[in-house]
Amino acid sequence: MIKVLIADDQELIRESLKIILDSKPDIEVTDAVSDGLEVIRSVRENKPDIILLDIRMPRLDGVSCTKIIKEGYPDIKIIILTTFDDDEYVFNALKYGASGYLFKRYKYGQPGRGDKYGISGTGNDKSRYCFKGFKVFLKTGCKQ
């Protein structure tokens, strides 16, 4: 069983990810939190294998969370959730030990890397979640 912590300040994103991941028999969502301080608390309590971590959150951003978590829990894999304009944030998170990143907001059918690497947002843009990149990571980057 792979234990996953979801951290995003947007409730719709958190709940959507939780619903999808809860439907997978080999994944247990240990918590879904909305800010960086809750991430730190949840990591201490639940010891997840993977954190899906929004790069921009209140009280403590994803970069700072990544640095703190990797110092205390180097075996936890962190996947950054980001939008296209977060290059500096993503670079810093990777520098501090994040295992990779997934894009939010690729629209379904949009040319480019959305179906291969991203997770799409939901809402009026009629986009969807795409988890191919996450599935590949689970197979190759996280031991059960």
Report on this model:
The protein is 40% helix and 19% strand. The chain has six helices and five strands, in the order βαβαβαβαβαα. A five-stranded parallel beta sheet has the order 2-1-3-4-5, with helices on both faces. Strand 3 (50-54), helix 3 (62-72) and strand 4 (77-82) form a beta-alpha-beta unit. Helix 2 packs parallel to helix 3 (62-72).
Name the features.
alpha/beta; 5-stranded parallel β-sheet; 144 residues; 6 helices
Rg from alpha-carbon coordinates: 14 Å
Count every helix, treating DSSP H or I runs of 4 or more residues as helices: 6
Global morphology: globular
Largest beta-sheet details: 5 strands, parallel
Cα distance spanning the termini: 6 Å
Sequence of secondary-structure elements: EHEHEHEHEHH
Q: Report the β-strand fraction as a percent range.
A: 15-25%
Q: Strands of the biggest beta sheet: in what spatial order?
A: 2-1-3-4-5
Low-pLDDT parts are 106-133
* Structural class designation: alpha/beta
The tally of beta strands, per DSSP, is 5
